[in-house]
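Q:
My hope is that you can spare some time for a protein that puzzles me. I hope you can help me see how the letters and the tokens relate. Thank you; the sequence and its tokens follow:
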Amino acid sequence: MFTQSACIATPKRICSIAATIVLAVMSAHACAQSSVQLYGIVDAWAGYLRIPGQSGAAELGGGGLSTSFWGFRGQEDLGGGYKAMFAVEGFFRPQNGQYGSFNGDPMFSRNAYVGIATPYGALTLGRQSSLLYLQSAQFNPFYASFTFSPTINQLYSALGTYPGYRTYQGIPGGTSWSNAIQYATPDYSGLNAHVMYAFGNQAGDDSARKVSAQATYTRGPLALGLTWQYLNFSSTPGDLSNLLQGFKSQTALQLGMSYNLNFVKLYGEYTYSDDTLVASSFHVNMLQGGLAVPVGVGSILASYAWSRDNSNLDQTRQTATLSYDYPFSRRTDVYAGYMYDHVSKLSSGSTWGAGIRTRF
């Protein structure tokens, strides 16, 4: 028999159960609408490194095939095809635990942006990877390796990011741009494009202004990419004071391609850069060809890059790399490689070694 008090309490219990169910449904709905992910790469190698014109040494370094980094990214579904998104990523050096890919690099050196994705494209604001750097990595078999990629070494390891010897060849401005705003189009049957502008952030000072546009077309085994980039600097640029005094501006144009024949994937790049100084100007032509050949579960990677400038240094550079990459799993691989690097009027450089890379 039910008492009167029991009958009165029953609706309260029902309401409590219903509230619990509603909260659980709301929580599950919120989890389904937003997500945050931790991810990154840890890559270390051991071997020997000699930069052209300098002495060599045995080395245990970071980033044999990929620069180590960690990051958080997430998105929230806003409804109607709109999403809020963010990414915070920082390079680090596993050989010594320091943040950044080199001394002076900020903690979140890879990316640090927030944006909105819509049916009409995506808009992002903050520090973002350079479009030319991303395309340079896409169309060479060693991707973004600062240790073994001829493309990345010729474009970014000398003039700009890791100055190692006297040369006028390379792309200044680094691999990521601060104070940047970027728009990316939706994919139109394999065609997509990006436009990015980086502000100087000081009234009357355009010494750090940067602008870039990039388009990629992919259809089946074929991929094509075209990037244009303009960098403007004052006559006494702060970030280039130890490289090229009086550097005013650089315009760069790059065409990239790849074609996958299954038994071999072919890569090619042509990069033209026009450099303006206070008292003179010069240009640099660079050609790169490469391939990736599956061998068992692993791959043989090979690449050759040639460049020449018509500056007062009149330098020709030739860089060639051969390596083998063997995956233990989808996340972890081991590799070994050798790179020959020669700049005219300097003694030749070379790099050889083996390493381990894991993704998380």
